[in-house]
Specification:
Layout lengths: L9 H13 L4 H6 L4 H4 L1 E4 L2 E4 L7 H13 L2 H10 L25 E2 L2 E2 L1 H20 L12 E5 L3 H12 L9 E5 L4 H8 L7 E6 L6 H17 L7 H4 E4 L3 H7 L6 E2 L17 H7 L1 H20 L6 H15 L4 E6 L7 H13 L17 E3 L11 H6 L6 E6 L9 H18 L3 H6 L7 H4 L7 E6 L4 H22 L10 H15 L10 H16 L2
Parallel strand pairs: 5-6, 5-7, 7-8, 8-9, 10-11, 10-12, 12-13
Antiparallel strand pairs: 1-2, 2-13, 3-4
Helix pairs in contact: 1-4, 7-12, 7-15, 12-13, 13-20, 14-20, 15-20, 21-22
């Protein structure tokens, strides 16, 4: 269907008018005039409960946001994704991370072929391999059992696996040590391998093309480290390295048996791939059964997103609220605050998912956007953040919408700890919403000069995402919640959420600069004056230490 430009849509214009009349309304008055607001403005699905009542919205706001979703053909775009249409238009690819968690027997067609059987074929191959490693049947070159797993990747080939490992550590095999190497900084690999025995160490090299600069540089150094500790026999590589890739020739040239190569597909973007073969380290850590539980959680949220009415649809609501703050309140960031130590890497994972997806400045037809797109995502686990950056959220000059994530049950119950943790969740959202007036501060007999410093304006919006406990299923639903929220926003902004050309230019320039840094003779330099001077200074300092 043909869509009007975003800012010309009826709902967008109505939202602008509504915002101008509404922007000064305080959450205090919204709650005071609606005693059931806290029960009404909630939604539930796939095991997650969303309280969005502490947002600066009215029923009229929500009606207009939902109308905007309809005018943007969100339902049609959802169906196009699930059908396998090539909605990643700049790369002419389908966008089918949902196929990675489709159940056996389902059918999702790409280029005339049902891809679901192939997905489950890879999952079965992964499970068989993981069972061999976890049981001790798979041994290294010297006959020793594998006790250390090192995943080497970058971007989605690292952020997903390391986040999932930390998030599901409670369910992991503690007889195995897991490390993750992504940075081409030599320190990353050196520290990851420093205290390990090469005879007991297995590397997973995750690179679709097996040519990614950082990943393959680290892989070659890992290969050299491994062979040095195993007597230099190149045959040892096949017992200590496996690949997640689609380039069988490069994998074989490296020395990896292609029988131990686990593939994935062009219709899976890196930041959407943690539930593909990229999750091999996750499956090794938690076992095939728990990995399938993770996939079940993803699938449950997929079904919810595809079938739930928009007014009860968690990803849609989360996405629309983000648009409300980004484009009308000019909020520049979103804080994600998990009150669960196991989710300490979740905000970092979301940074790539959200910012690589929606950090775009042109529409699908190449027109420059005239509105804000992807906000900056950041955060730390509670309660740590309360003693650092929460000061700015509460009393700073910037509006920072917050997502609080909490669980009813602790995985490691210890006395009063969990009650104290949850008390802080509820207290923070209450304080952000309602603040503390000058009259309330004065009533505490605060000296007049100190009153302004102790006033909390409130009216700071937040969502509370609540679940029973952190399980593999719950992690899947949480990740899929944000995946589909990103999709919702990208659809309305009319951008391609599934390409990432912005990462390319720096890569190309780095390939040009590397030989200039390594050249024995002084190379001719044709960069700008700053880059030329920096290269010369580095070469001079490098030479001085030889």
């Amino acid at each position: 269907m043909s869509l009007a430009p975003l800012q010309q849509r009826t709902a967008w214009k109505a939202l602008q008018t509504h915002y101008e009349a509404f922007q000064g309304v305080h959450l205090r008055s919204l709650f005071a005039t609606d005693s059931h607001r806290g029960e009404r403005l909630t939604a539930e699905g796939a095991g997650l409960f969303l309280d969005y009542s502490k947002n600066r919205v009215t029923d009229e706001t929500l009606k207009l946001l939902l109308q905007l979703a309809e005018e943007s053909d969100l339902r049609g775009r959802i169906e196009a994704m699930f059908r396998g249409d090539k909605i990643n238009i700049t790369e002419n690819r389908a966008v089918l991370h949902v196929a990675l968690r489709a159940q056996r027997g389902e059918s999702i067609i790409v280029d005339g072929e049902n891809v679901v059987p192939e997905v489950h074929g890879v999952l079965d191959k992964m499970a068989a391999f993981c069972d061999r490693v976890r049981s001790g049947i798979w041994v290294g070159h010297t006959g020793k059992r594998i006790r250390n797993i090192i995943n080497i990747g970058i971007g989605g080939s690292d952020l997903g696996p390391v986040m999932a490992y930390e998030a599901l550590k409670y369910y992991s095999d503690r007889n195995l040590t897991f490390r993750f190497v992504s940075n081409v900084d030599d320190t990353d690999l050196v520290e990851a391998t420093r205290d390990l025995d090469p005879a007991e160490t297995l590397f997973i090299i995750s690179s679709k093309t097996f040519t990614t600069l950082e990943t393959m540089t680290n892989a070659q150094s890992a290969r050299a480290w491994s062979l040095k500790g195993l007597g230099g026999d190149a045959k040892a590589v096949a017992r200590h390295f496996v690949a997640v890739s689609t380039n069988a020739q490069k994998v074989s040239e490296f020395g990896i048996d292609t029988a131990n190569m686990f593939g994935f597909w062009d219709w899976v973007g890196g930041r959407y791939s943690m539930d593909s073969a990229i999750g091999l380290s996750t499956m090794l850590a938690v076992g095939p059964d728990n990995f399938r539980r993770l996939l079940t959680g993803f699938h449950e949220m997929d079904v919810h997103f595809r079938t739930a009415p928009f007014e009860k649809n968690l990803p849609v609501l989360l996405g629309l609220l983000g648009i409300w703050y980004t484009d009308f309140f000019n909020a520049q960031t979103v804080a994600v605050l998990p009150y669960e130590q196991y989710l300490k890497r979740f905000p970092a994972y979301l940074q790539q998912l959200t910012m690589e997806s929606n950090g775009k400045h042109v529409t699908l037809d190449g027109t420059t956007v005239t509105y804000q797109t992807g906000p900056i995502y950041w955060g730390e686990p509670g309660t740590n953040g309360q003693h650092s950056f929460y000061q700015l959220i509460h009393q700073g000059t910037r509006l920072i919408p917050c997502d609080f994530i909490a669980f009813a049950h602790a995985l490691n119950p210890l006395g009063r700890h969990h009650d104290m943790l949850l008390a802080n969740v509820f207290a923070q959202t209450e304080a952000l919403a309602f603040g503390k007036t000058a009259e309330q501060v004065k009533a505490e007999k605060t000296p007049d000069w100190l009153v302004p410093h102790r006033v909390f304006e409130g009216n700071r919006p937040s969502n509370t995402i609540f679940a029973e406990r952190l399980t593999p299923e719950t992690l899947g639903t949480l990740v899929a919640l944000y995946e589909h929220s990103v999709f919702t926003q990208g659809t309305i902004w009319n951008i391609d959420s599934f390409d990432q050309w912005g990462v390319e230019l720096g890569k190309v320039l780095a390939q040009r600069i590397i030989p200039e840094l390594e050249s024995p003779a002084e190379p001719p330099l044709n960069h700008d004056s700053s880059t030329n001077a920096l290269i010369r200074r580095y070469r001079k300092l490098k030479a001085a230490t030889k």
